[in-house]
# Entry
Amino acid sequence: MSKALEFEILHTDARTGARRGRITTRHGTIETPVFMPVGTQATVKAMKPEDVEKSGAEIILGNTYHLYLRPGSDIVREAGGLHKFMNWNKSILTDSGGFQVFSLGDFRKITEEGVKFKSYLDGSSHMMTPESSIQVQMDLGSDIMMAFDECCPYPSDYEYTKKSMERTTRWLERCIKAQTNTEQQSLFGIMQGGFYKDLRKISAEQIIEFDLPGYAIGGISVGEPKEAFMEILTSCAGYLPAEKPRYLMGVGTPDYLFEGVENGVDMFDCVLPTRLARHGVALTSHGKVNIKNARYERDFSPLDDECDCYCCSKYSKAYLRHLFKCDEILCSMLLSEHNIHFLVHTMANIRKAIEEDRFSEYKKEFYDKYGEYNE
# Structure
């Protein structure tokens, strides 16, 4: 490869903005649109790397904030980078740590220089800047790294959001100057602007001036009503270059995945599938299954009769319920593997539907069975 990242659009659905594409990094090919499992602390929770790979995942996420605090990016660098440290040979995207430090509330202070915050581990004080975020991500050696941005809470007033968006642009310029290995890692800029369309448009215009390998939509799916999410989403992707990959950050519910794809988004991530699994909830083709329910005590059928994952091919709802009630970690392992498999394969079905110019039909078929998100 002559560049750290290459992107091509293979097909666009005839009736929607849905795109079928392909991203290539130093560590392989990523078919898009893609759901990316989150490996916050150099592991997808309750899953072995080989099981994540068996699910069909082609790229996972690592978290700059958490890996900076523990074990320290210097240790990961000495280990040969995040790929070797966690034994994952496919692509990795690292977030900037911005969302995590901004979510600390009273435990952080935002300045033009960066963000002062206290560690959730021991209360020690730290400062994260655009430069230090990029340095940590270079230490980690991910294929795609994200610019350090400010994520506004919902709701935020116009003036605060405007100042935050402008700071994000200034920080992006500092991130670009701090990166010294553009042939090894690709830096994505992040559009901010809260829930104000004019600010979103301005943010997009500012960040695309830097001609980066890809761009993300940040600062939505932060607790707002779905109506507000949809109103902003329908305009956001159109503000970003068509020839570059578009990444909608922190989205993983099936309805948001479908809406994002329909609006021209290529990449998604979320902790949802493994978090639900730890609480005994499975995503299936017929909607959510809460394995804690008493009605599954003698249900010897699989979680999902349309799923071919290891969990569904080997175990029953009754057994999974038994594991959960006994607080056995195997339940989290099996449900995590299933949920990741479900979302990864739903995206594979979406890609096929786009290729066949039947995305809208597949979306309706999915909703008709899944039930929860029918309108």
In short: The first strand starts at residue 5 and ends at 12. The first helix runs from residue 49 to 54. The chain has a mean pLDDT of 95.
